[in-house]
Predict the 3D structure of the following.
Amino acid sequence: MIIFYALAAAFGLGVLWLGASVRVVKQFERGVVFRFGRVQTGVRGPGLALLIPVADRLEKVNMQIITMPVPAQDGITRDNVTVRVDAVIYFNVADPVRVVVDVQDYVSAIGQVAQTSLRSIIGKSDLDDLLCNREGLNQGLELMIDSPAVGWGVHIDRVEIKDVVLPDSMKRSIARQAEAERERRARVITADGELQASEKLAQAAETMAAHPAALQLRLLETVVEVAAEKNSTLVLPFPVELLRFLERATPEASGSPDDEAAKLPTSAAASKSEMPKLDIPQIPDDASGLRVDTR
C-alpha cells in the first residue's frame, strides 16, 4: 500500500514537472527564454519547448503582420492650408529578442512614432503633394517611422495615407479652379480648331483660284445639298464672271453720278449766258399823246 502511494506521488510530481517544463509554441510565434532573469540567445521555434522548472521563463512573441490605423491628425501644410490626414501602418516583428528586451510595449511605441511622423510630413508637404503625390509621401513616412523601429526589432512593411479632409472653403476654391481649367482647355481646343479650319480654307481658296472649274463644282454641290431637303427655297445660280464683267464695263459706259452732278451747275450757267436780253420799254415824260382805251 505504501508502495502504491509512493508511485502515485511520483507520478503526480512527474506530471507537475512536465507541466512546468514543457511549453507549446505556435507556428506564427517565437519563444524567448529567460533563465534566472537573463535572456538566452537561442530563440525557440514552433513546437514543444522544454524548460527548466523554476529557472526558466518563456516569453512568446507574435510574428504576424499587425495592422494599425493611425488616428487622424490636424496640421497645416507648407502652403498654409489646414488639413486633417489619417493613415494605416503594416508592420511585424523582425527580432523577437529586441522586442522583448529593448521596448516595453512596441505596438504603442510604433503608434506614437507614426502620429508624430504623420504631423511632420504634413508640415513639410504642399496641398498638391497630399492630393496627387501620395506614393512619395508614403515612402517618406515609412522611412521616418522605420528609422527608430529598426532599433526595436520591428520591421515596417508598408505605410499608406488613407484620407485627406479639406475645409469646405478650400473645396469650393478647388472646384472653381478645376472649372476654370476646363474652360481654358475648351477655349484652347476651339481656337486650335479655328486655326486649322482657316488654314484648310486658305488652301481650298488657292486651289479654286488656280482651277476655276473647282468653284463651279462646289457651287453645284451646294445646290444639291440645298435641294436634298423638302423646302420651298429657290436657288438661282448666277455666274460670278458675269458680275465681274459688269463691274469692269460700268465705268467705261457712263460716268459716275458725282461727275453728272458736277456738270449740272456748269451747263445751267452756260444756258443762262446764252439767253437773249430784253430791252426795257421807254415811257415818255408827257403822257398826253397816249390814247387810253376805255372799252
Summary: The radius of gyration is 55 Å. The first strand starts at residue 22 and ends at 25. The chain is about 55% helix and 20% strand.
